[in-house]
Design a protein that fits this description.
Helix content is about 25%, strand content about 30%. The protein is of the alpha+beta class. Strands 12, 13, 15, 16, 17, 18, 19 and 21 form an eight-stranded antiparallel β-sheet that branches. Strands 1, 5, 6, 7, 8, 9 and 11 form a seven-stranded antiparallel β-sheet that branches. A two-stranded antiparallel sheet has the order 2-3.
């Protein structure tokens, strides 16, 4: 998942603003571990002392007199792939660590410290030397989307701030799923501010941060325009979508809000079309537009135009991901899972161990077409035993409660079937298994109990070698639907 942007321009995944948290530190005697992820730059107070020593704006452990080193465990505010880190040792001159290192893991966000300590950690930054009172930047080459990190300092000392920049990779199931209306400009969903005409008073990234702005500094604000033209900002959405509604929030901007604003959309950030016509703005107001939208997409980028200049606190773009957008996110999800996670996800789509193994080994996929081509080839390359292993992972039709992750939804057509139909389905299931040596496989999505019963009776007439191929085709249809469900 290559990214050409300077990593410093990417979101800080561990930021307190995104909900990041410092869960544990081996020692924070002189200065609290929570300071590591404060959004503001560190400060120096010349004559400020506490009962433990000099007041420092950072995390500082005591001088270590035993073997070992100090470390802290942090939970990211947004799940993502790390592209670079900044270890800021501002004002730590004679008390900074000699070196640092970073390892990461992907675990449920509610995991306890005890669970995290025992988790499988992945090294992404080897032990690297640090300079005092400096911004120590390190590029990171990683492909795994992570939720937690462990920051090591050697052997002890103080660090003012830790910035962990990367690409947000949402766990779409936890976010509600891409079949639902979501704010696809939001940083926590993977939205990204690419460029703007000016941001003299307020950074462009503030536009897509969580929550409403805290004050006027927590927004995007341009300088006063003295010449012709207008200011603008371009946001890349989390994925391709059709737009349902938008919000332009001028919270706290009272004498410096834009007079008017408009919004354009694009699928390639080159050719633009109108989404919201130029519209009068109000001070300190949350403007919501739905019926006023003149274009809805599909689009991947939006451009907010403000006339002639001014400040906007937040921009929200609520939409539905297109089928192409969901496919892109399936590929990104599979590419960025750990091997164990990928095994579980892919096994929920197909119970063949060989197919799952080959899919994991084939990563990263270049796109949806590449994933589909390989998935189908690996499936058709299986022998009869491999196909039967996949069939065996399914419950019988009508036994959805004992099935896997997706079965209840897929077999929903049986919930309204009569008791007579269900009894006959049970009988035909057993007759089918006796004849062919594996359970009756049919792509049940959208089919009623009576339809599935009729299909089974018809297929009982097939020769065993013919029916094996028919069942394999039905399994392939199921796999296609299940792959898309990984983000739905």
């Amino acid at each position: 998942m290559p990214h050409m942007t300077d990593f410093h321009e990417l979101p800080d995944l561990v930021s307190e603003r995104l909900g990041g948290s410092v869960l544990y530190a081996t020692d924070d005697f002189f200065a609290e571990k929570e300071n590591l992820i404060k959004p503001a730059a560190p400060v120096w107070k010349e004559h400020e002392y506490t009962d433990r020593g000099k007041w420092m704006d950072g995390w500082e452990s005591r001088r270590k007199r035993t073997p070992g080193h100090d470390f802290a465990i942090l939970r990211l505010g947004a799940r993502g792939v790390v592209r670079g880190i900044v270890v800021d040792t501002s004002f730590f001159r004679g008390n900074y660590p000699e070196a640092c290192a970073l390892d990461v893991c992907s675990m449920p966000p509610q995991s306890s410290v005890e669970t995290l300590v025992a988790a499988p950690w992945i090294d992404i930054l080897p032990q690297s030397p640090l300079k005092g009172d400096s911004q120590n930047s390190f590029d990171v080459d990683s492909r795994v989307a992570i939720t937690h990190l462990r920051f090591h300092i050697f052997p002890d000392g103080g660090v003012a701030r830790l910035r962990v920049h990367g690409e947000v990779v949402p766990d779409w199931h936890r976010q509600g799923g891409l079949l639902n209306e979501l704010d696809l400009a939001a940083v926590e969903h993977g939205g990204e501010v690419l460029s703007c005409s000016d941001m003299f008073f307020g950074p462009k990234h503030n536009l897509i941060m969580p929550g409403r702005g805290r004050n006027m500094s927590d927004g995007w604000e341009t300088r006063r325009r003295r010449g012709p033209g207008n200011d603008w900002v371009i946001v890349k959405l989390a994925t391709e979508a059709t737009i349902r509604r938008i919000e332009i929030d001028t919270a706290h901007f009272k004498g410096n809000y834009p007079d008017t604003a408009s919004l354009d959309g694009s699928r390639d950030s080159k050719e633009w079309f109108e989404v919201l016509p130029r519209t009068k703005m109000q001070p300190d107001t949350r403007h919501v537009f739905r019926d006023e939208l003149s274009g809805r997409g599909p689009l991947t980028h939006v451009r907010l135009n403000v006339f002639p200049d001014g400040g906007v606190s937040r921009l929200r773009i609520y939409g539905l991901a297109t089928e192409e957008g969901r496919a892109v996110e399936v590929v990104r999800r599979i590419n960025t899972l750990t091997d164990d996670q990928a095994d579980a996800e892919l096994r929920s789509c197909c119970g063949s161990s060989q197919w799952v193994r080959r899919m994991i080994e084939a990563r990263p996929f270049r796109g949806w077409d590449d994933l589909m081509k390989r998935a189908e080839k690996f499936w058709r390359d299986l022998d009869a035993a491999g196909w039967r292993e996949a069939f065996a992972a399914h419950p019988r039709i009508g036994e959805s409660k004992s099935g896997g992750r997706w079965t209840a939804g897929e077999q929903s057509g049986t919930t309204s079937a009569s008791s007579k139909t269900m009894k006959e389905l049970d009988e035909v299931n057993r007759a089918y298994e006796k004849r062919f040596g594996h359970i009756y496989i049919v792509c049940a999505t959208g089919k009623s109990g009576d339809e599935m019963l009729a299909i089974a009776r018809q297929r009982l007439q097939n020769r065993p070698e013919e029916e094996l191929k028919v069942a394999a085709e039905e399994q392939w249809k199921i796999m296609l639907l299940r792959l898309m469900k990984l983000v739905a």
